[in-house]
Amino acid sequence: MQYQCPLCHQPLQLDNQIWLCSNHHQFDRAKEGYVNLMPVQHKKSKNPGDNQMMMQARRQFLDAGYYQPLRDAIFSLLDNLLPDDSTSQTLLDIGCGEGYYTGFFAEKLKLRRNITVYGLDIAKGAIRSAAKRYASAEFCVASSHLLPFSNQSMDAVLRIYAPCKAQELSRVVKSDGLIVAVTPAPNHLIQLKGLIYQVPQPHDDSEEHIDGFYLVESQRLSYGLNLPGEQAVNLLQMTPFAWKASEQLIAELSDNTDFYCETDFYIRLYRKN
Ligand SMILES: C[S@@+](CC[C@H](N)C(=O)[O-])C[C@H]1O[C@@H](n2cnc3c(N)ncnc32)[C@H](O)[C@@H]1O
Ligand SMILES: [Zn+2]
C-alpha cells in the first residue's frame, strides 16, 4: 500500500479497518472500502468537487456506453505501455469521479500484470459510489493538489478531465513514469455549447505542457453521438454549461428524441523528464 498521511506525510498502515501513521493520525476505512484522506482543515468547502446530481448524470451517461470508444482507446494505450510481467506496478486515476474508467482499467489491466489501481477524487459521494461498485480498485477521497501517496510511487497517472498540480504529479510519478491526460479538443460538445451560447467557441487547441514531463504522443479521437433527450440532459448536467442552462432549455432538450452532438478528445501521453 502506498498511502501516506496527509498531515505528516508518513506512510499509512492498515490496522483493523483503520489507516494509521507513526504519529498516530488515523483515518477510518469506510464499509465500502475507501478511505477519506481529506482532513477537514484542508477543505475549502463542505462538499467539494462534483455534486451528487452531476455524479448520477455522469454515471447514467457513461453506463449507456457513449464514451466507451474513449475508454477503449485509453485502455489500449495503457495495455501496450505497461509491462506485462510480474513486476509490481501502480496506476493512479486522479479526479476519477464515480469510477467508470478506474474500475474497468483495474479489472482488465490485472489480467496480464501485477498492478494496483487507485482512484482519487475530492467528491466523497462519487468515491463512495465508485468503491461500492468497483472492488478491483482502491479508492480515496483527496485532492489532486495534495496527493496522499509517497514520492516516486506511481508508474502511471491518468487524468481524464480533472484538475492537477504539476509539482505533485512530478513528486509521485516514478522516474521514467507516465501521465495519460484526456482533454477536450476544439469541437468537443460544440452542439451542446450551441444551446447556451449564440456563437459557441471551440476549445483552446494549444498543447498543454506539464512541468517535469515531456510529450511523447498525442492522439485525437472524434465521433458523433445521437442522444435521446434524457441522455442529452445527462450530458449537459455533467458539464459546466449546466449552470447556464434555463429550466426551459432543459425541458426542451429532454423532449428532443434525437440530439446530435460531436465528441472530440485529445489523449496525450507524457513521460517524466
Ligand atoms: C469532469 S469530472 C471527470 C470525472 C472522471 N474522470 C470522468 O471522466 O468520468 C472531474 C472530477 O474531478 C473532481 N475534482 C474536482 N476538483 C478536484 C480536486 N482538486 N482534486 C481531485 N478531484 C477533483 C470532481 O469531483 C469530478 O469528479
Ligand atoms: Zn500522520
3D architecture notes:
This protein has 273 residues and is of the alpha/beta class. The chain has a single domain (13-40, 49-272), classed as Rossmann fold. 29% of the residues lie in helices and 29% in strands. The chain has helices at residues 52-63, 68-81, 100-109, 124-133, 166-172, 190-196, 229-238, 247-255, and strands at residues 13-15, 18-20, 26-28, 35-36, 88-94, 114-121, 138-141, 154-160, 173-184, 213-227, 259-272. The strands form two sheets. An eight-stranded mixed sheet has the order 4-7-6-5-8-9-11-10, with helices on both faces. The chain has a three-stranded antiparallel sheet with strand order 1-2-3, with no helix packed on it. Helix 1 packs across helix 7 (229-238), helix 2 (68-81) packs parallel to helix 3 and helix 7 (229-238) packs antiparallel against helix 8 (247-255). S-adenosylmethionine (SAM) is lined by residues 49-50, 58, 95-97, 100, 121-123, 126, 143-145, 160-163. This is 23S rRNA (Guanine(745)-N(1))-methyltransferase. One of its GO terms (biological process) is methylation. GO terms for molecular function: metal ion binding; methyltransferase activity. Residues 3-46 form the 23S rRNA (guanine(745)-N(1))-methyltransferase N-terminal domain.
